Amino acid sequence: MPIAAFFLSHWLLSVFCQTFFLHRYGAHRMFTMSRGWERFFHLVTFVCQGSSYLDPRAYAILHREHHAFSDTPRDPHSPRYFKHPWSMMWYTKARYEAYAHRVAQPEPRFDTGQPEWPTLDKLAQSWTVRFCFVGLYVWFYWAFATQPWMWVLLPVHFVMGPVQGAIVNWCGHRYGYRNFGGEDDSRNTLPFDLVTLGELFQNNHHRFSQSPKFASRAWEIDPCWPIIKALAFVGVIDLREHAQGMPVEARRAIRL
Question: Which contacts (CB < 8 Å, 24+ apart) does range 180-189 have?
């Protein structure tokens, strides 16, 4: 079924770019890569996220603030202070746009080392480009949708990045179990996280914020981790330099 295949492909490619490039690489620098590969994944993120493309700089700043102020009033997206995910993400949207369009400046410690490609980022965030992607999605549904219910999926394509972010930030701090204590509300929502490719191991991630492997227990599966290991094996990324500064227990968890 073309619509199901398109939706699933768009979902997985978008969330992979978010967890691999924007989060694990851009915000945390959990591994290194050459300038050429960084530009490649930057471009892939633009193509895969499409109309809901997230600027890597703004994403990194917000995520670093989230770790620094997790579940406190200064957290840009804590469910503790909102009645539902829509109000939380609307607040996050305002914070994101202020950083993406540089009308607000974060603390200097949050604004360093993230991927930046000014020409592409400016183009990707223009309404002209966003509406071009929207038009492509609508055309695909017009050409291949065979049942009325399929059209219900179409709006998700328009805002897929924020939808995935809402699932992670809301569910990952409200529902599930905890492997580690702490003052924040982080949870592991799913022991096998195919939905967001490991992002819903929030409790593990908050405990080992610099570990590129989000699963911590033997029965937990982070689907993005084998991809990261494969990319390291073929030389696209380098995990070794980063591992030097990791805590011993975190290095043991990823077996480096």
Answer: 180/204, 180/206, 180/207, 180/216, 182/206, 182/207, 183/70, 183/71, 184/70, 184/71, 185/70, 185/71, 185/78, 185/79, 185/80, 186/70, 186/71, 188/220
Global pTM reads 0.92
Whether residue 31 contacts residue 25, with contact meaning beta carbons closer than 8 Å, is answered with: yes
Amino acid letter for position 199: E
Task: Answer for the pair 195, 118: CB distance below 8 angstroms, yes or no.
Answer: no
Q: CA 38, CA 191: separation in Å to the nearest integer?
A: 30
CA distance 32 to 25: 7
Quickly count: other Cβ atoms within 10 Å of residue 201's Cβ.
Answer: 30
Identify whether the C-beta of residue 92 lies closer than 8 Å to the C-beta of residue 165: yes
Closest CA to 53 of 169, 186, 165: 165
Per-domain residue ranges for the chain?
Answer: 2-254
Strand partners, 188: 177, 201
Length of the chain: 256
Could you give the 3-state DSSP secondary structure of residue 189?
Answer: coil
Predicted confidence at residue 1, as pLDDT, reads 83
pLDDT tens per residue, range 23-56: 999 999 999 999 999 999 999 999 999 999 999 9
d(CA 73, CA 231): 38
Q: What's the pLDDT tens digit per position in 199-247?
A: 999 999 999 999 999 999 999 999 999 999 999 999 999 997 655 445 5
* C-alpha closest to that of 194 among 170, 166, 167, 217: 167
